[in-house]
Amino acid sequence: MKKSLFALAAVGAFAGAAQAQSSVTVYGNLDMSATQVTNGTTAVGGTETRYNTRTTGNGDGALSTSVIGFRGTEDLGKGMRATFRLEYDLVDVGTGGNGNTNQTTTAGAADTTIAQNQTTTGVWNGFGARYSFVGLEGDFGTVRLGRQENTVHSVMTNGLAGAGNNSIGSIYSEGSNGASENRAQIRPYGVFVNRAITYIAPTVSGFTVEAQTANQTISSDTTAANAANTSISVTSGSVKFTGIKNLSVAYGMTMYDMNTASTSVTTADTKRRAQIATAQYNFGPVVGFLAAAENKINTAAGALTTKDTLYEFGLRAPLTPVISAWASGYTGTRASDTATSRADLSGYQLGLTYAFSKRTSAYGIFGTQNIKATEVSAASSTSKVESTGMAVGIRHTF
After folding, report:
1. Domains (range + CATH), the chain
2. Prediction pTM value
3. In the predicted structure, residue 267 carries a pLDDT above the cut 80
4. What is the rounded CA–CA span in Å between residue 190 and residue 177?
């Protein structure tokens, strides 16, 4: 009897130890808002066109993206751990939608298949692909394999007073997101990278270095099939410094190289390079933010399609123990070697959050941004594009 009790106790202790060596966490974020967006264009001749969108069920998130995810670790011994993360964008949470056909319908036309995108959420409705990687951690640093955020993403958010929210008014604002269809978007990089290999070095004297690469190449040994050859590669790197109290500084660069055929240069082939430098400093009553970015897109032959030079400044401060506010603004220019068109870029954003608890907050956000041509090419029909949006919502994390 005593032996049986001892054996049961030993088994229970072993099970407890095994359980402590590995863990899986389910987490998520639900962000719902009432949103109003106005997109406008002004033609070269002065004709203005406005598009207004209102929704009481924006579920993809104006403050942050609605997601559900799973992450876990396993202790491998000798200071090593295995890790994984799976996360999905709940794109249609506002309507309860949770499926995806990967299709869209154009009026009067048959359904058209939509391919998974290299750098944004890989779906148009339902569950959207975000993180899906496995990794190893140890004294050597961290290695991750799979779909991950571009290493410059954390560089960018380090310099944003709005913390990379999904609303209009920041250089981070995307063309199509939960808060709006932002026609004046100028985001200099794609957040996610497929098939990425990322290395994060241990922090030394306040410095942390990251390197990332991703590639998919389709090629043929026969000359006749070379026209079908394609190559997509992404190379990124960043360095962050947090060795001085209250100060965080970061720099990153990402390069995209997309070729549709290995034996010829076509107009579809592009090379893109984005450089981002950011800083934030906690002054005590207020935190200051600064972001500078350059985004260059060239044809494979070297012609400059677009060059954006951008600067964003922002402040964030607690007004009370539960109310926090931020304000930011940006300015910049757009140029091109392939046309005479030039443009001024500008925008601003105001935001307010009220924390009911550590997990639940109400918020309000207002922002506007525009692309205003200073020189217009003969082929251009638009002299100004502007977007304005506001959102009031609730976010809950779990």
Report:
1. 35-57+140-397 (2.40.160.10)
2. 0.83
3. no
4. 13
